[in-house]
Amino acid sequence: MNNSIFETTITTNSQTGSVVEHTSENMPARAFFFVVVDEIGNDGYLTRKVYASLDDPYLKAMNLPNERMLNEVFPERYGLKGKDLTSNATIAEHVMGVNTKSRYTSTSSIFPEGSPRFQGKPIYIDINKAISSGAKLVSTQEIIDALEEYKSIAPKRIKRINQIIGYVQDIDREILVTDSIPARAIFTDDSLRYVKTIGKVGKVVQFFGFAFTAYDLTIASKESIKTQSMAPISAEVLRQAGGWGAGIAGLKMGTAIGVTMGITTGPGATITGLIGGVIFGAAGYLGADWVADFIYEN
Predict the structure, then answer these.
(1) With contact defined as beta carbons under 8 Å apart, do 206 and 155 qualify?
(2) What is the pTM of this model?
(3) Domain ranges of the chain
């Protein structure tokens, strides 16, 4: 850290032991940035079977534009969307196949197998990420209700409609997704296995930045060295980051901080990972200073 010199004029007196507190606007500080990775699958997944290759004969026969072909085979890279986002096709028309160009995408709530009636490469849609990106879900029951209403429009097709209702309800467990699903909400077998293996990892990161005053951190650092404990410096970080706001943000960030720096609460007791997240997260709910004093009172 660079040395800094501050010049100021302070009114004093001749009384022995008198003290005047003066706060400089140029107190040296250091900024710290923490990265938080969103968790995946909090609200579950939907499964869809897609074409495994651009050379699939059925896909080629559709004569789709190149962009659309990539969407069909690699939605985990390019996203997924209905064939026509401006279409007025109804839920029943989509499910019955009367209008194949709709804004709906068919998926299954059967995870991870998907519907046994369809073949292809399975992909998994993170429900929470899809909804947060603007997509909407049409539940299995809503599909069945729409098909029941469709009977009045197509009375000659009641037998076929009842058959489709059976598929939707008992075999496919179909759920429709409207509009577009971004690539960050879609996983394959390999990518889902990977993120589950390494823990709470997703495709979206958030950044939190704080500026800590160098003087107080220096004092706390010396105390940590003196006592051979991370408690003083950890507590000071908590005090200075007391304006986190939402406790949820604190909990998320806490997990990252707990993993990277650890918190020592007693001789040889280093707490990292999830437990670190609990301590830092509690700061968001109960107040950073309260938690800091609990770790190390100054």
Answers:
(1) no
(2) 0.56
(3) 45-197, 204-295
